[in-house]
Amino acid sequence: MVAGYGLSFWMLALVLRDLPIGLTYAVWAAVGTALIAAIGIVAFGEPATTMKLLSLALIIAGTIGLNLAGSH
Fold this sequence. Notes:
Mean pLDDT: 89
Helix content: over 70%
Number of domains: 1
């Protein structure tokens, strides 16, 4: 686990050379949140309620919105 965290922070530092920190952190947080929720649904049988799926869609939409806003 420690090696995984070290690798992920090293890769984050590489990405920060070319992308703004606001966008990078938004993607980092959104992907982590969405993946954990998806793993909970798929691997652990958590219920995929309408509210949960809508919330995941909003996370993805917000990240895409930040990406589009940062490109102008």
